[in-house]
Amino acid sequence: MSTHETRHEVGLKKLSEFTDTNSAQSTHDKISESLKDIAPAVGEWITDFAYGEVYSRTGLGNRDRALVTISTLVTQGTEPQLALHINTGLTAGLSGNEIVEAIMHLVPYTGFPRVLNALEVAKTVFAERGITVETE
Amino acid sequence: MSTHETRHEVGLKKLSEFTDTNSAQSTHDKISESLKDIAPAVGEWITDFAYGEVYSRTGLGNRDRALVTISTLVTQGTEPQLALHINTGLTAGLSGNEIVEAIMHLVPYTGFPRVLNALEVAKTVFAERGITVETE
Amino acid sequence: MSTHETRHEVGLKKLSEFTDTNSAQSTHDKISESLKDIAPAVGEWITDFAYGEVYSRTGLGNRDRALVTISTLVTQGTEPQLALHINTGLTAGLSGNEIVEAIMHLVPYTGFPRVLNALEVAKTVFAERGITVETE
Amino acid sequence: MSTHETRHEVGLKKLSEFTDTNSAQSTHDKISESLKDIAPAVGEWITDFAYGEVYSRTGLGNRDRALVTISTLVTQGTEPQLALHINTGLTAGLSGNEIVEAIMHLVPYTGFPRVLNALEVAKTVFAERGITVETE
Amino acid sequence: MSTHETRHEVGLKKLSEFTDTNSAQSTHDKISESLKDIAPAVGEWITDFAYGEVYSRTGLGNRDRALVTISTLVTQGTEPQLALHINTGLTAGLSGNEIVEAIMHLVPYTGFPRVLNALEVAKTVFAERGITVETE
Amino acid sequence: MSTHETRHEVGLKKLSEFTDTNSAQSTHDKISESLKDIAPAVGEWITDFAYGEVYSRTGLGNRDRALVTISTLVTQGTEPQLALHINTGLTAGLSGNEIVEAIMHLVPYTGFPRVLNALEVAKTVFAERGITVETE
């Protein structure tokens, strides 16, 4: 971490690399907005700790971090967050096709139910962003 | 899938790309061996379905598939399989450092306990393969 | 597996044993339809691998497989799939009463929350199929 | 357990300590009502076993039991039951602030997704009961 | 429940139907013994509530209840209890082959890792009871 | 957070409130020591983020935070961390009896398996610290 930046600034900058599109940005903004009335510190932890400290480490690139994030969220079945991170994953360099392949790859590890539910979430996000995937 | 190969042959070939080292191979062999007396069909499903159909799709490379696999196994906390797939991940092109970073990246999504247990597993596999990671 | 049938044909036939009613069929069709635009291979895996290879094994009957399937889905809390498989379970020979008893049996193993949510799903499916259960 | 009371009576009395407000009562009543047509015994188990035997033990007070209950439900991600038990927790002596702090405390153990979804549930319950939390 | 029996007596009788062999009995006894020093009420709840109220309901037979129990424990990955209930399942009328088939049936729903770990547990229990399974 | 302390210092101080006994301290030290060779930043996140930011918030006391922590770990089934936090819970003001009651309270929410495994862990920790619990 540069000595001239606080981790909050580092976090905001890193976050913008994942949300620099209308769709990802607006999804993330809705989360922060909703936290304001009940637990604003959680919003700060997301920026300062998750993006400022974890995501900002140099040993793995943004695209790979998005792949790891999508994989854990499919496995947990936490769909609102999966929608957000399919969005941030597209912004961070994953193609729609790669995201679909990653979800499909999880069938032998999580079984079909989690995968089917995740593909539904992906369809909705892709429709919002006007993304079509090639199917084979 | 080539028309000249059955999915079993495709699966064996794909599997070898992930297990072409003494350590990964011997870990995988132990699983197949153990299945023989009780449920040999499960061993065939792993080769024919998991490796022959899922892993063999072209839309995502071996290294990325290893990253997705490690992420789901850390999240599930299934440690024997995590040990195997840290092994196959190393063979498929992930560095020890990238594996550690991927596990660390999961802290904001799974919390510390799963991550701490996964890092213990990684340490054991790295020691067996004589891999050292740079820490920062 | 008969040498005169491919596993796809075996899968379709087995699948029809579980979906041979308007309600189960239409639920299953909706899943396949939805997969077509995004991941048609997953639909094929369900027919060819899940029904053609796993469900088609002879060591356990359709009714018992439905019981196992409902039990894992209640435990995972994946409700859209639970609705489908309460439907296929009814078609495969489980009575509404047996399904309710199986869900209730899970209280000591999963706790009340998963069971309460599963009973809500069962109520909806039973209402759609015009099934009433005797309560004691 | 007093020799003059059955565990059903003990359970009803203990339950009333957690649901003695319009909001908690009506949420609990909806569950019992819904169980009547499909599995009334589960409703009796909740009163007689959960409240009559488990909750009625003397080694831990009502407020602490509510804290334990909320923590497991956030971890499991079972949102309908979390809504009920944020309600019963408020009735049993937890403040809105303490509930928010308990949910926030889970970030290092469950990660952010479960916590964000739980805070949404808390917001809805607090709004229904006219509770405001101080944020810092 | 007969009016001449308490639920404790009903529970003990039902429990004996599942543990009436040296191996299942001794596994269950070890659990009760271990609970005595720390939480004897939990041992009573298992007999009185789990066996006396849940298992004793008439709508589903012992063998089917064992199938449901094994399915949830494979899904949860709680291996000490899985070992116990593979044991009780054998006593309650499931064959070794049926247990293996039920575990294998879970591959499309839980993925391979949980299934592989459960098959290891089954192997150990079968060896202790001198059971061999036919593999195909 | 006092302006005269960094969050690392705040974290160390807070951590010491939970580990100020030989047993809890040595368990925590083993974790930090083990992380040094593979992922020292995770050890820093535990001190700086988990203890320095989350645990240090004023809205919930140390004892209550220990109760929440134990509840989530029983639910997740992550036993090495459960052993640590039964230890820190004892140091933070929970009695052995309260810890046992909290674990028992989870039966209606997680089912018996997680609870039985957690009680085994508690027995081991209590034996190490020479703690006896009154059973009723």
The CATH superfamily of the largest domain in chain A bears the name AhpD-like
User: From the coordinates shown, what is the CATH architecture of the largest domain in chain A?
Assistant: Up-down Bundle
Class inferred from helices and paired strands of chain A:
mainly alpha
Work out the count of structural domains of chain A: 2
Strand residue content of chain A: under 5%
What is the name of the CATH topology of the largest domain in chain A? Answer: AhpD-like
Biggest protein-protein contact in the assembly:
D-F, 33 and 32 residues
Oligomer: homohexamer
Number of distinct beta strands of chain A: 0
Terminal CA distance of chain A: 43 Å
Model description:
The structure is a homohexamer of 136-residue chains. Chain A is mainly α. The first copy, chain A, has two domains: 1-57, no CATH class; 61-136, AhpD-like (Up-down Bundle), CATH 1.20.1290.10. Chain A is 76% helix and 0% strand. Chain A is built from eight helices and no strands. Chain A has helices at 7-19, 22-36, 40-54, 62-76, 79-91, 96-105, 107-110, 112-129. The longest helix of chain A has 18 residues, at 112-129. The N and C termini of chain A lie far apart (43 Å). Chains in contact: A-B, A-C, A-D, A-E, A-F, B-C, B-D, B-E, B-F, C-D, C-E, C-F, D-E, D-F, E-F. At the D-F interface, helix 3, helix 4, helix 6 and helix 7 of D face helix 3, helix 4, helix 6 and helix 7 of F. Chains A, B, C, D, E, F: This is 4-carboxymuconolactone decarboxylase. Chains A, B, C, D, E, F: GO terms for molecular function: peroxiredoxin activity. Chains A, B, C, D, E, F: InterPro entries: 4CMD/NDH-1_regulator, AhpD-like, CMD-like.
